[in-house]
Specification:
Layout (H helix, E strand, L loop, with lengths): L4 H10 L20 H15 L3 H13 L30 H17 L6 H15 L33 H10 L4 H8 L6 E3 L4 H5 L13 H10 L10 E3 L11 H7 L6 H8 L4 H9 L1 H17 L23
Helix pairs in contact: 2-4, 2-5, 3-4, 3-5, 4-5, 7-13, 10-12, 12-13
Bound molecules: protoporphyrin IX containing FE.
Protoporphyrin IX containing FE binds next to α3, α7 and β1.
Length: about 325
């Protein structure tokens, strides 16, 4: 500060996101001591009742945090005047169970300590708990985020990758969020759980000359099974396949091992196993689960702490789907 004086102070004040938020692992220890226990209890009940919750919530977390930081902007419901992030095309497939989980936790926490715990912290905490509950690493996240005052569908699309983008494009999207190629490869390991709708990979298995054969690099038997599974996908839009065909509900390094043997589901999954910039990382994580878990945990913490909203530029929403000044 000393070397650039008032000019730097002005720049810092003009860009609120540059100001460091006061995040801490025990942010709520005095103001809401029951927060963590309540969250873990509800997450556990929900995951037992609906085992797809872990994957859905992890994706919800990622889609929230990539667009202007983890600020629960994805939870805001659209109004007749404004279409919010959750109704952007890429977010329409986010599962109801993940939204329901956050609502349940928020309701329980509000009863114990009203107006204290932000929806963004609840989403981050729930994701952390679910990842380790399904076998993944313990992730030491911090709390103290505020919820956004904005949620705009137009801010979403260029921040999130699509399976059929080139690797250059995908890397540039992650880099625009200050995430390296290494962090990208570790984060995409999230595809070790959950599923994808057939439309997301249909062009790989049905289009062009490969119709009766197998898409480039895909295991032929796997391709044939996917074609059977997705035969009616245009009529039944819910048809889906597991992202990790061998251990779909377990957070492990099987995703990377699959990629090397032609069991990558999305075109982007397959591409990272063969691109010169990413191949060696896929090899590393396929061979060494601890290296994957370490890298995933670090990258997830980084994503969770980017562009955090501070006191003045956010609020603790009373309802996660509405700003506090919502007038209906
Ligand atoms: C190259 C980057 C990525 C692309 C192109 C991509 C694309 C997709 C697509 C198309 C789906 C299927 C959605 C559906 O059909 O409902 C999906 C699912 C999923 N994605 Fe990604 N994704 C990427 C990175 C990530 C990252 C970094 C994470 C988390 C850290 C993540 C977490 C998930 C999870 C957990 C699912 C399963 C969701 C469920 O079962 O409900 N993805 N992804």
């Amino acid at each position: 500060m000393k070397s650039c004086g008032l000019r730097c102070l002005f720049i810092l004040l003009s860009f609120p996101f540059l100001l460091q938020a006061n995040l801490s692992p025990d942010y709520y220890s005095k103001t809401c001591p029951e927060f963590d226990q309540t969250l873990v209890q509800i997450v556990t009940e929900k995951q037992i009742a609906a085992p797809t919750t872990a994957a859905g919530t992890l994706r919800l977390f990622f889609h929230d945090c990539m667009v202007d930081g983890c600020d629960a902007s994805i939870l805001v419901a659209s109004t007749p005047r404004k279409t919010s992030e959750r109704d952007a095309d890429i977010n329409r497939s986010l599962p109801g169970d993940a939204f329901d989980l956050i609502t349940r936790i928020k309701t329980a926490v509000e009863l114990k300590c009203p107006n204290v715990v932000s929806c963004s912290d609840i989403l981050v905490g729930a994701t952390r708990s679910l990842v380790s509950m399904v076998g993944g690493p313990k992730i030491n996240v911090k709390f103290g985020r505020k919820d956004s005052l904005v949620s705009d569908m137009n801010r979403v699309e260029r921040k999130l990758a699509r399976p059929n983008m080139t690797m250059d494009h995908i890397i540039s999207i992650f880099e625009s969020s200050d995430l390296t190629v290494q962090e990208m490869v570790a984060l995409v390991g999230a595809h070790t759980i959950g599923f994808s709708h057939c439309k997301e990979f249909a062009s790989r298995i049905f289009d062009g000359e490969n119709q009766s054969g197998s898409p480039e690099g895909m295991n032929p038997k796997y391709a044939a099974e996917l074609r059977k599974l997705c035969a009616n996908y245009t009529k039944d839009e819910e048809m889906s396949a597991f992202n990790d065909v061998f251990t779909p509900g377990k957070f492990d390094n099987m995703y990377y091992r699959n990629l090397k043997h032609g069991y990558g589901l999305l075109a982007s999954d397959h591409a990272i196993a063969f691109d010169n910039r990413t191949r060696s990382l896929v090899d590393l994580y396929a061979a060494n689960e601890t290296a994957f878990f370490d890298a995933f945990a670090k990258a997830m913490v980084k994503v969770s702490e980017q562009k955090v909203k501070t006191e003045k530029h956010g609020e603790v929403r009373r309802r996660c789907d509405q700003y506090n000044d919502y007038k209906g």
